[in-house]
Amino acid sequence: MMMMMGGNNQFTTQNKGGEPLGNNGINNSCVGGGREGGIPLKKGPWTATEDAVLAEYVRSHGEGSWNAVQKNTGLARCEKSCRLRWVNHLRPNLKKGSFSLEEEKIIIELHAKMGNKWARMAAQL
């Protein structure tokens, strides 16, 4: 990471490749900019149409090829956004809502055994 003096005596931060970093020092190429020559990426809430396109793509090609989603579907979303949308909202086996009493009991028992290993505990529910 390098600090560069810009116009009006303002500092800008760049990575080793010379790309500007966001205000928090993170490369924001996925957030809104897109790749050079590519389509600009969309930010904000997902539409029902985008959800349907992503769900159909995952049904056809499976999970794990997130970097190919934009190229193959035309979605104006980066691979990280697509992956998170699938994992947190669209997966068919995703359970939302309150825990049952039985699940609460299992969680308490697992926490007593494992501590704060939440991902491992979630795999057992």
Summarize the topology:
Layout: E1 2-5, E2 11-14, H1 29-33, H2 48-61, H3 69-73, H4 79-90, H5 101-114, H6 118-123
Helix pairs in contact: 2-4
Question: Can you describe what's shown?
Answer:
The chain is mainly α and 125 residues long. It has three domains: 1-33, no CATH class; 40-94, Arc Repressor Mutant, subunit A (Orthogonal Bundle); 98-125. It contains six helices and two strands. It has helices at residues 29-33, 48-61, 69-73, 79-90, 101-114, 118-123, and strands at residues 2-5, 11-14. A two-stranded antiparallel ribbon has the order 1-2. α2 (48-61) packs across α4. The longest helix is centred in the middle third of the chain and has 14 residues, at 48-61. It is elongated, with a radius of gyration of 20 Å. Mean pLDDT is 78; it is low at 1-5 and 21-29.
Helical residues, percent: 40-55%
Q: Specify the number of helices.
A: 6
What is the mean predicted local confidence, pLDDT? 78
Spatial gap, N to C terminus: 43 Å
Q: Say what the CATH topology of the largest domain is.
A: Arc Repressor Mutant, subunit A
User: If classified by CATH, what would the architecture of the largest domain be?
Assistant: Orthogonal Bundle
Q: Give me the strand/helix succession.
A: EEHHHHHH
Alpha-beta content class: mainly alpha
Low-confidence segments, ≥5 residues, pLDDT <50? 1-5, 21-29
Notable characteristics:
125 residues, mainly alpha, Arc Repressor Mutant, subunit A, 3 domains, two-stranded antiparallel sheet, 6 helices, 45% helix
